[in-house]
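The following block was generated as part of the benchmark described in Methods. Ligand: flavin-adenine dinucleotide.
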Amino acid sequence: MEMRKIYDVVIIGGGPGGYVAAIRASKLGLQAALVEKAKLGGTCLHAGCIPSKALLRSAEIYANMKNAEQFGVVVPEVDFDFSKAQSRKEQITEQLYKGVQHLMKKGKIDVYEGFGRIAGPRSVLVEKSGDGILTLGAENILVATGSRPRSLPGLEPDGKYVMTSDEALQMTDLPKSIIIVGGGVIGIEWASMFSDFGLDVTIIEYEDRILPLEDRDISREMQRLLKKKKVKMITNAKVLLETLEKGNGIFIKAEHKGEEKSFTAEKILVSIGRNPNTENIGLDILDVEMDQAFIKTNEYYQTNVPNIYAIGDVIGGLQLAHVASHEGMIAIEHMAGNCLARLDPILVPKCIYSNPEVASVGLTEEQAKKEGFFIKTSKFSFRAIGKALVFGNSDGFVKFVVEEGSSQVLGVHMVGPNVTEMISGAGLAQVFNLTAMDIAETIHPHPTLSEAIGEAALAVTGMEIHM
Ligand code: FAD
């Protein structure tokens, strides 16, 4: 076994956590190696954020074209070619993949193809099938191996009826009907996309509402809007796996309010969360502490072994690409002797790219009350926003949760057109402890969708203009 050079940091996993960490290391003058078993870019680029948004965009355009007449655009017949949507998705992914490869070269980051495994506190083995094993020396090791779809026992992907998001992204044809098990972020994005493509969609959700981690008002509004798109949603429902039958489509029962209900569709998509990739990567050799299946770290993403760090989906918490990247930068800075401010999960914007979109940052109304805040809330509807009417999409609203008295912003929650593009401003307001009045005094240009934010801020004191 040949011992290659000793790096300041060897990163295992080249997703948005790992490759961003590698770039930060290079910018700080650290010698970095990146080990990737599949393709640079990780889940986000190849099986997550980007491909799903490319398909969502195709679905949205298709739905808009079917409603084009209201804009004075007369399209005799709108048809859809899913294979073209798929190849567009592939092209976008490929372009970004090349971009990441270029960034690695530019940063003089050594990329090793193969399966990475910790062999000791200062060495990583890279195994490439048919190509032997090599050993990399490492002052520090950063584990960024990400996650994979969780499946229900008995409801694993079978190449025909049952899919997770991995298989759904590779579909060559669309079915006519689909059952989605799990009404969280990924489930709702798929539900929105499939219904825009014209599929018959049924969501089965275990909790009492879809999007159970969002503010209750947002869940309720999204439920209403999906219902308008004819999506069926069964909440408080538990899938009864022993009733699963496959044949001409898939047949399943769920327990709902003490009764058994039957559902049938051509396919079923299981979106019930993601498991971390922590197996066989040598964590046990060093007795790295775990928190259930996830790697346990401190605020600088250091494990109990001081020169072993872990970031991204593999440590749990908010499994988001921008979180993985941010954690990667904090970990690398710490290795370089700098202490960046810790990432406060409350300040992380969360987005759902359905049609219409959902975006939020900060505490929900329920969380704020639970934390003992005396609060006030306000809401402003996109119905009263000129730009939303111009867009032909005025569903949804902006909601503020503020501390009573000081009016300090505790949370901002939005559902509506393009809200994912507007949430960063609300995030900035929270990072700098701004009040609703500070936001109301910030000029929001007319006509823009962002006026709903200014109006919702004014509405905290009943001073809104257009309602
Ligand atoms: P990953 O992106 O999973 O990357 C880990 C990498 O490590 C992979 O490339 C893997 O091949 C490699 N690897 C694993 N084990 C080894 C090993 N032993 N040796 C070498 N390499 C290894 N997040 C958002 O923020 N916005 C979105 O819109 C969004 N949409 C999503 C849509 C879907 C359908 C899914 C599934 C996820 C979505 N996510 C989204 C979540 C996002 O993709 C993840 O949070 C993010 O990719 C996590 O980054 P990571 O670097 O921790 O891990």
